[in-house]
Amino acid sequence: MSDVQLTIDGVAVSVPEGATILDACRAEGKEQPTLCYLETLTPVNTCRVCVVQVTGSRTLVPSCSRVIEEGTDISTDSPAVRQTRKVIFEFLASSVDMSLVDEPTQQWMDHYEVDPTRYGPTAADSPAGARDGRHAGHHAAPVGGLTETVAQPVKIDDALYVRDYGKCILCYKCVEACGPDAQNTFAIQVAGRGFDARISTEFNVALTSSACVYCGNCIGVCPTGALMFRSEYELRKASMWDEEAQTVTRTVCSYCGVGCNLELHVQDNRIVKVTSPQDHSVTSGHLCIKGRFGYESVQELGDLENTPIDAVLRAARTS
Amino acid sequence: MYAIDPRRTTSAQWADVWLGIDVGSDIALANAIGREIISAGLANDNFIAHATSGFDAYAAAVDEWSLERAAQVTGVPAGVIRDVAHDLATAETAQICWTLGITEHHNATDNVLALINLALLTGHVGRYGSGLVPIRGQNNVQGGGDMGALPNKLPGFQDVADDESRAKFEAKWEAAVPPEPGHHLSLMFDAMERGELRSLFVLGENPAQSEADVARTRRLLAGLDFLLVQDIFMTRTAEMADVVLPAAAGWAESEGTVTSSERRVQRVRKALEPPGEARDDLEILAMLASRLGHDLGTTHAESIWDELRELSPMHAGMSYRRLDELGGIQWPCVDEDDPGTRFLHGDLWEDPLPRDPVPLIPTGWVPPVDELTEEFPIRLTTGRRLDSYNTGVQTGGYSSPLRERGSIEISPEDGAAFGLAEGDQVSVRSRRGSIEVPVFFHRSLRPGLAFMSIHQPDEADVNLLTIDAWDPKSGTAEFKATAVSIQPMESTA
Amino acid sequence: MSAEANDAERAAVNELLGAPDSGWDGGDRSAADHHIARGGVRQTSGVRHLLLPALQAVQGAIGWVSPGALNYVSERLTVPPAEAYAVATFYALLATEERPRRVAHVCEDVSCRNRGGLDLLEELSGRGDVMASPCLGQCDRSPAVLVQRAGEYDASLWNSTPEMVIDVLEGAEPIDPNPGHYGIPQTEAGSDGLRLLHRVGAIDPYSLDEYRAADGYAALTKAMEMTPTELIEEVKRSGIKGRGGAAFPMGVKWEAVVAQESDPVLVCNADEAEPGTFKDRGIMEGDPFSLVEAMTIAGYTLGAHRSYLYIRGEYPRAARHVASAIEVAKEAGLLGEDILGSGFDFDIEIRMGGGAYICGEETALFNSIEGFRGEPRQKPPYPAEAGLFGLPTAINNVETLINLPLIVLEGGDAYAALGTPDSTGIKLFCLSGDVVTPGVYEVEFGATIRDLIELAGGPLDDIAAVLLGGVSGSFVGPDQLDLPLTFEATREAGVALGTAVVMPFSSSTDFDDVTKRIAAFFRDESCGQCVPCRVGTVRQEEALFRLLNPAPTNGSAGEIGLLTEIDQAMKLGSICGLGHTAGSAIQSAIALGLIGDRG
After folding, report:
1. Domain interval for residue A50
2. CA–CA distance, B115 with B329 (Å, rounded to integer)
3. ipTM of the prediction
4. A interface test, pick of B393, B398, B404, B455 with most A CB neighbours within 10 Å
5. Predicted structure pTM score
């Protein structure tokens, strides 16, 4: 495979043919913000926070998916790029609860001096189910110009998952992980249109009535904490979630011969969450219900004196 | 993708074609496929001549398996069997994957040989993307064999009958290794039946619920002089024990390695302190040995692993450091420069052939042992569900939204024919016992075929029904084929 | 989800898809299904494109898509129910909640709203079977209404009164008040000198004989005596550029398509949904054979054997007329196999839109045909390389294509001599708003805004501004009336020709109301895929509402500054043209002082 030449912020760079702008930027040590991008998923180009300026292009270009052509001249920090990224982050932050995004994203938002408040006071939260019932092509006029958000009550259908769509930025990652990029279960999709688009099962039925197989791969890829282990959700609610006190240990799932790697997140000698390393060749971060949630057998939650979080974890088991 | 399964499972729904064969007709199908490949001139003659032996005898043996006869035995239309044969033979690469539907039969080894014959016939072996793939049901079924937990093998599949191998281990361990193979599980129970085996040490297994014809198992376990169980749970078997040694969970409370289906050795690590007085398996074994007057030395997992690397050439290159760096290594891995082996049997394509040709071994079809009769007209087959594991002791503890009650599933047609409604309590009877369970209807089943999972023995003790007819080579019982009758319970009528 | 379809729902789907093959795809289970099943989940790739037609079949027969019906469609096509639901809820004309069997959509868009649309909505308010609608493409005959009628064809009503609407909702047959009306005032006055519209209104759209008598199919006959290479050469010489809004040279596009290795597919974009646009409707309703002939010539030129004609769902009459023309042409050997004995096979399949402006974007249209949500794709790859079903695709607008017979008959050079050097040929314009005689007007390129308004009988009143190119275009002031509406002149003036909408607004216009409607339109029609457009269209509408309040929260300057930032983010950051242009008209209204000067 031959190399292609390009310039990034005025610096000449050579990358392998087929590389994306993001690949090239990372190779140069120029990290770009991303939300909907993940190495293990097909790029969907929807969040647009990774856009860069390409000379000759009328609009900005998503760096995560654009394959570099010979001689491309890229700016990652032009005024147009900075301003566009800032406003896009503000669009998200003014409509979605971004409090649980990862540290790098938080830093990017600080970097671009994101200020969601300048879009004015926010409108009231939607009642449960209201956003799920909206019909494409129809909406109520903004009341007093108040800023509409996707805030709504959390959805809890069972003892394993919490879906907090007030934190959903519609990055499509969960849809891809549930669908063709990992699980091929297709229990969820983006339904509705425009700002009323939402992640939904058919007719918004509870997950328990849907095709969901509880692999938790959607949780594994969610960048905003909209999808969460029930255990994490309940511990956070009880102000007992403490990442600094947690250890993360890599091991191998015991439930079949595939050899999925597990990362056990342990707090107070209790598993509180299970993830899987994306860079591992066996399943690229994906698991099944047993690997993701079948750990309860190693933690009888009887001894409350020893482990203060047990009461919360036990409550989380019952849906 | 072709899926061959009596039930149209979720995997089968993904296949381009599902072949819903009758339970236990695998060899009939495989032999007919083999015959069709040969008679259509699609066999890989060069590969057969180069790397195999016994072709003529095989061809003669499968000659009686016309497509029509196989259609009669399997239930699958002849044209579809022909399609499988042609697609398999003409595919650039093809894998034959199987799991317990092949191996939980009284003729399990023959079932596997019948499939191996097809791969040899078509040259779908020893090449990247082609091959024979037994999919393992546990994280370390492969690793158990690797480590010598087989009646006739030492670690690294070195034969106990081989003096040189034995000598190597004896020198290292400073102890004699018996040259005769031990018993596999089924032989052990036969030995108990004969009164020859009076004491048993069970590690991490729950035979009192998992064995076929479990009433017999329980009787034999109860009749032992001494039963020692080492487990992480108080299983039904542990409840019967004289002494129970609480162990630490291998995947979360101990250090060590496991080997996956693809021969990938990976490390497991300790993330949790085990509860109470539970201890690491290695530590328990060392303490036992010590009480018996032997010092096993260190119980440090890596040291023991390094001892294995010294004694087992196929593991020699797998240091812990390399296992970490490479995300696991597939054996054989003979030294620290060896990246491991992605697929086996590539040497079958080398010229000259560096080993003996692989034999095609003719296999004959025999129906399941538990015959269908007027009294027992329904074929019951068993299996797993996605969210559960074996007898459910590990997976029973989490609140799976997918969990179904212990029950029997039958086809909607049979449900109507028997005058049943979903959820009705029924009596399921086999030649060995009977249980009472609720019944549900499922479209994956056809008339005459029923299914039960093995996960809820406390609610649905399916192994009271199953037959312990077992394969003489592997010792595996015929869990997949039980003849039963289903009767509505009086109370629900 | 376990709901089951009723018999009527099954019948509606089966009418489209045929009876199920087996118990595994929705039929009754027979002994044959006990041991064999073909085509599992993966067969989806082959039939998924029938998803939208199947959902439309249910909607059309029952009046909504129930959970049971959705399950049955999913089962028949092996599409996961969540995917089918995601597609169903993307389209405004599909309902996933039960509603009356007849529903009226009353246009409230920029042209109709002040010409009876809002009054009609007011008078019908309170009815559960009446709802507001974006532009229905009938700006020449406001107020426009579309009635969806379960079990019968959908009906367009125009010059609508409350009584007309209620009658149809309550079961009366819709009466065509003016059967020959296609919105082409020029032909109503006699078709002399017209080259594209001369047959519209002059012939019976169902009659092939009348079409042939008026020079119909002369071009196809001539084209088939030429080679595809010669035809492409003529197209290139004609200098014709696409009329759908992007103004890309058609010859260059087609060369790129035929340069690909696999057989191409032709798509005609008749998803004419830009508010104020109705020219393609007139052609399809009044001269449907001309489109069929043009597509056939295009297919022959490109070496395409398959083609799709994607007509917006709000054009039931156009679809009926074109469907009839396709049937008649096939019977006459002018379409289908072995056309005119040449050995060339070509077919046209009509697909109906479901009420989604975004599907006029070419890659969204591909996704819509393929049975996915009508979300635009990131380009590259461009349609010429990988378009519909991943095949090399030529996608052209209706108006562009119907120039093709003219180019064939008169030659590329003769065509290029019309209009201006950079904007060759004939152009259709959609005149609506405050003009005396709204309609589609055919002119040579070069006519000014003033010329066109005069052609439409002149303005109703003093002109305060003209909306050019639709709501994705921009307002221009009265000082621009002498701007020639050519590609080059509009580009130089910083405005877009777009879909050739010319909509004058008189000085009495409430521009606050008009711009609010434009903002609402984009908020409704954004597909929601990318953040800048999904959220930007909402933030724009909110900021506009605040700006137009008596006391803007951030002050006028603050809100205007915010609107500009929002516009820029949508323009630079969005995936497709919808986001790129969603702030355009509002920005121009601010710049012209039409709104937002309250301090």
Report:
1. 3-81
2. 27
3. 0.96
4. B398
5. 0.95
